[in-house]
């Protein structure tokens, strides 16, 4: 899954995963790579994922808005 996301969006995602949350009603998947007090979310060009960055500009989490369309 991480490799697919990296290839599709040209990202290099961390490999340490803290938590994974999945909402099966709407198909959203949220993967947290590190604990961060404040994150800044930036949607991908197609809007199917939101990459969350910490204060230092490092990827803290990624949210895939509809896993079935990845």
Number of strands: 5
- SS field, number of helical segments: 1
Provide the number of structural domains. Answer: 1
Please compute the radius of gyration using only Cα atoms.
11 Å
Question: What is the topology, as strand order, of the major beta sheet?
Answer: 1-2-5-4-3
Shape estimate: globular
| Overall pLDDT | 91
Describe it for me?
The structure is a single chain. By secondary structure, this protein is mainly beta. The protein has one domain. It has one helix at 2-9; strands at residues 19-23, 28-32, 40-43, 49-53, 59-64. Strands 1-2-5-4-3 form a five-stranded antiparallel sheet, with no helix packed on it. Strand 3 and strand 4 (49-53) form a beta hairpin. The longest helix is centred in the N-terminal third of the chain and has 8 residues, at 2-9.
List keywords for this structure.
36% strand, globular, 70 residues, mainly beta, 1 helix
Topology:
Elements: H1 2-9, E1 19-23, E2 28-32, E3 40-43, E4 49-53, E5 59-64
Summarize the structure.
The chain is mainly beta.
């Amino acid at each position: 899954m991480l490799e697919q996301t990296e290839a599709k969006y040209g990202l290099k995602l961390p490999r340490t995963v803290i938590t994974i949350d999945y909402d099966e009603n709407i198909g959203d998947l949220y993967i947290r790579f590190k604990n961060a007090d404040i994150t800044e979310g930036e949607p991908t060009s197609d809007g199917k994922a939101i990459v969350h960055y910490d204060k230092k500009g490092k990827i803290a989490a990624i949210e895939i808005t509809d896993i079935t369309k990845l």
